[in-house]
């Protein structure tokens, strides 16, 4: 059973940076695509970024393109989300999720939907405020 734990959230000023980590345990993370999602109060969960199981495909929501970078270190069973030039509208609880099979795993297909992941972490809070 795959377990995911997010870390790295916190309070940061606008324009600042954070790096989120999604640590996997239980099975090798290399067998899964990993997506990052976020949910702000009163809003639906939205896909932010995704990296395929082999790392060859990365995708980003338009709102974070050029500012966020996703990467994976399978040896450490960890996926990272480097977030730069943060804005107040980036404030949310950030979740990572894993997809185990098919186009979701191989191509991050459909990662923008909140039902994408087979496994989910508990989330980490990111607050961007002065």
From the structure above, extract its key features:
single chain; 130 residues; 1 helix; mainly beta; 7-stranded mixed sheet; 4-stranded antiparallel sheet
Poorly predicted runs of 5 or more residues: none
Strand content: over 45%
Oligomer: single chain
How does the overall form come out from the CA principal axes? globular
Order of helices and strands: EEEEEEEEEHEE
Instruction: Describe the sheet with the most strands.
Output: 7 strands, mixed
Q: List how many beta strands DSSP finds.
A: 11
Beginning-to-end CA distance, first to last residue: 40 Å
Which class of secondary structure composition applies to the elements? mainly beta
What's the gyration radius in Å? 13 Å
Q: Kindly report the average pLDDT value.
A: 94
Helix content bin: under 10%
Number of DSSP helices? 1
Task: Report a brief summary of the structure.
The chain is mainly beta. It has one helix spanning 102-107; strands at residues 3-7, 10-12, 18-25, 33-39, 46-51, 58-60, 68-73, 78-83, 92-99, 119-120, 124-128.
């Amino acid at each position: 059973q795959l377990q995911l734990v997010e870390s790295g959230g916190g309070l940061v000023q606008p324009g600042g940076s954070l790096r989120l980590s999604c640590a996997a345990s239980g099975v090798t993370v290399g067998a899964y695509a990993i997506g990052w999602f976020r949910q702000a109060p009163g809003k639906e969960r939205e896909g932010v970024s995704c990296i395929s199981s082999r790392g060859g495909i990365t995708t980003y929501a338009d709102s974070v393109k050029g500012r966020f970078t996703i990467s994976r270190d399978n040896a450490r069973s960890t996926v990272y989300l480097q977030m730069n030039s943060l804005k107040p509208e980036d404030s949310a609880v950030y979740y990572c999720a894993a997809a185990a099979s098919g186009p979701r795993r191989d191509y991050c297909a459909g990662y923008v939907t909140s039902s994408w992941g087979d496994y989910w972490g508990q989330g980490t809070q990111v607050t961007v405020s002065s």
